[in-house]
């Protein structure tokens, strides 16, 4: 087994990079086709969700495989390899198995314990099977991953540790209050009719919204989802479908909007949202500007200085928006290490006249520390956060953007009277979410399953060699029996049968203990070399072993349920 996974997720990359690297359906197909066509890989599968992009492959060379898979990810994502590389992670063999099993159990999800990932893994396997890029390893890996994920959810309380991304997002919109109380009587607009949008519509219906309007580019799919919602026994709700060109009008009527489409561009611009709010209130919508938020407090912009020269500041001071602190994290977001060091030197030379303000030296130390971070990760990731709710007017329109790339313009964060929760703000919120005690139990399940899977794969790896050895022994026995028939032609059939059985018993007894033991040894970590040793000791033809492997793969595919 030479399983390799190269990928990036919300744990390794900022949302802005994930958004740009997101793979559409066509790009995923092309990536799979190009991967199996590449020299190091024999089979492959892609797992692409709203917060991860991972390429799994069976490779014959580790370093060449990492280089090839990384290059292919960069090519098909449209993000340059040099920019993408700092955010990529690599797992090999057992570590790669451990990673997928952890993902399947929800341990690596943005919301720990969520079960939607199982459906996404199932879809990834189905796509690889359809494109014939999944061989024995990918099929075994992903099918076992699904079983491990289901086991974790059935045997533990991991579901209590997390929830669906939809539920978590609605809780963020409700600002910590009861979603049921918050949703009661509201009118909801759901944009998109895929699995995530359907889950959002059903969740809103259960929460008690008065109406759900579904908009989708394919109107028939919107109609189907609206019909399902209206006919549901447990949570029937007034539901109707509209075409996408009706969204601006529906936006004016809606209280809460959930958007999750496969569009590559924005579905809702800040201007469209502002116009909708203005249509509801009859008053222009104020743009509050972006604010650097630190420890829950707003950091005001610097006042004029009594000393120091602004011409030495690497920031474009004229372009700095109101609400930014020149020393704050938001101001230096996106800077590289060299520019941050220049900024630190400039900050240290300023004399700032404001009571209670940190000293310039402290600011310089902060920025120098940020520079060290930038030197290791490339750039300080940009952070967009809405102002604390207490400092903004009460929202009249709530928006939840679950798409990657984003459906709703991030500039909506600045609009007064609007609350936007997107993948980026969900990532920040989930970082502080409490972990359930059941997580440790799931981790033990993952470790046990990884060990069992590795042992089974290593044992299966030596099976063709053992079969080839026994085939060779049977051929030797047949040859010797044929020679004996020529030398002793007077033997009757009963005597020949006794001799044949005796020789077979001798060979079987001689091979039994070594073959059983070699399978046991091969199942242990580091046991892959026993197959090579067996082939060398008995001078087995490599093509014979390969033929057995191909025959087993063919039988496995024939017997595999559709």
Structure keywords:
22 helices, 12 strands, 4-stranded antiparallel beta sheet, alpha/beta, elongated
Instruction: Please bin the fraction of helical residues.
Output: 40-55%
Arithmetic mean pLDDT: 78
Please give the radius of gyration in angstroms. 31 Å
Please report the total strand number as a whole number: 12
Low-confidence stretches: 290-311, 315-330, 350-358, 380-390, 557-562
Oligomer type: single chain
Distance between the termini: 24 Å
Count of DSSP H/I helices? 22
Largest sheet: 6 strands, parallel
- 3D shape: elongated
Strand content: 5-15%
Secondary-structure-derived class: alpha/beta
Strand order of the largest sheet: 7-6-5-8-11-12
Plain-language structure description:
It is built from 22 helices and 12 strands. The chain is of the alpha/beta class. The strands form 3 sheets. Strands 7-6-5-8-11-12 form a 6-stranded parallel sheet, with helices on both faces. Helix 7 runs antiparallel to helix 19 and helix 19 packs antiparallel against helix 20. The longest helix is centred in the C-terminal third of the chain and has 50 residues. The radius of gyration is 31 Å and the shape is elongated.
What's the SSE blueprint?
Blueprint: E1 3-9, H1 15-21, H2 25-37, E2 41-49, E3 52-59, H3 62-77, H4 81-84, E4 89-92, H5 94-104, H6 116-130, H7 136-155, H8 158-161, H9 165-173, H10 179-183, E5 187-191, H11 195-207, E6 211-216, H12 219-231, E7 238-243, H13 247-253, E8 256-259, H14 270-281, E9 293-294, E10 297-298, H15 329-332, H16 337-348, H17 360-377, E11 397-401, E12 418-421, H18 423-430, H19 438-487, H20 493-523, H21 529-537, H22 542-559
Parallel strand pairs: 5-6, 5-8, 6-7, 8-11, 11-12
Antiparallel strand pairs: 1-3, 1-4, 2-3, 9-10
């Amino acid at each position: 087994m030479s399983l390799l996974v190269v990928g990036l997720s919300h744990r390794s990359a900022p949302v802005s990079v994930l958004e740009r690297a997101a793979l559409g359906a066509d790009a995923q197909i092309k990536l799979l086709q190009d991967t199996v066509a590449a020299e190091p890989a024999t089979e492959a599968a892609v797992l692409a969700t709203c917060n991860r992009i991972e390429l799994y492959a069976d490779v014959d060379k580790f370093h060449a495989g990492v280089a090839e898979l990384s290059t292919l990810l960069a090519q098909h994502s449209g993000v340059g390899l040099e920019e993408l590389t700092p955010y990529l992670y690599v797992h090999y063999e057992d570590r790669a198995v451990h990673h997928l099993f952890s993902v399947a159990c929800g341990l690596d999800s943005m919301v720990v314990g969520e079960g939607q990932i199982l459906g996404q893994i199932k879809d990834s396997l189905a796509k690889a099977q359809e494109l014939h890029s999944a061989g024995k390893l990918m099929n075994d890996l992903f099918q076992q991953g699904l079983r491990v994920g289901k086991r974790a959810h059935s045997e533990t309380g991991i579901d209590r540790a997390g929830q669906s991304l939809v539920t978590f997002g609605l809780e963020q919109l409700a600002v910590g209050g009861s979603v049921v109380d918050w949703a009661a009587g509201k009118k909801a607009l759901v944009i998109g009719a895929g699995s995530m949008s359907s889950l959002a519509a059903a969740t809103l219906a259960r929460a008690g919204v008065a109406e759900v309007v579904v908009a989708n580019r394919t109107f028939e799919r919107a109609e189907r989802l609206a019909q399902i919602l209206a006919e549901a026994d447990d949570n029937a709700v007034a539901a109707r479908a509209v075409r996408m060109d009706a969204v601006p009008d529906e936006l004016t009527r809606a209280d809460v909007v959930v958007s999750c489409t496969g569009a590559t561009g924005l579905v809702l611009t800040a201007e469209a949202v502002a116009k909708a709010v203005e249509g509801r209130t009859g008053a222009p919508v104020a743009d509050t500007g972006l604010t650097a938020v630190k420890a829950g407090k707003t950091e005001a912009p610097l006042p004029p200085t009594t000393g120091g020269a602004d011409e030495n500041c690497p920031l474009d001071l004229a372009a700095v928006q109101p609400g930014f602190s020149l020393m704050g994290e938001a101001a230096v977001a996106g800077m590289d290490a060299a520019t941050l060091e220049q900024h630190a030197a400039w900050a240290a030379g300023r004399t700032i006249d404001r009571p209670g303000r940190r000293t310039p030296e402290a600011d310089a130390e902060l920025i120098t520390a940020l520079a060290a971070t930038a030197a290791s990760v490339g750039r300080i990731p940009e952070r967009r956060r809405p102002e604390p709710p207490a400092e903004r007017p009460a929202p009249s329109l709530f928006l939840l953007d679950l798409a990657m790339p984003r459906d709703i313009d991030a500039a909506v964060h600045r609009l007064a009277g609007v609350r936007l929760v997107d993948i980026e703000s969900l990532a920040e919120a989930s970082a502080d979410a409490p972990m359930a005690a059941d997580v440790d139990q799931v981790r033990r399940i993952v470790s046990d399953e990884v060990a069992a899977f590795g042992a089974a794969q290593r044992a299966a790896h030596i099976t063709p060699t053992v079969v080839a050895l026994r085939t060779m022994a049977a051929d030797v026995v047949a040859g010797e029996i044929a020679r004996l028939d020529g030398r002793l032609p007077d033997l009757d059939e009963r005597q020949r049968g006794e001799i044949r059985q005796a020789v077979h018993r001798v060979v079987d007894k001689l091979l039994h203990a070594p073959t059983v033991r070699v399978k046991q040894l091969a199942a242990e970590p580091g046991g892959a070399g026993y197959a090579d040793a067996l082939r060398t000791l008995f001078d087995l033809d490599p093509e014979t072993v390969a033929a057995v492997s191909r025959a087993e793969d063919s039988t496995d595919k024939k017997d595999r349920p559709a």
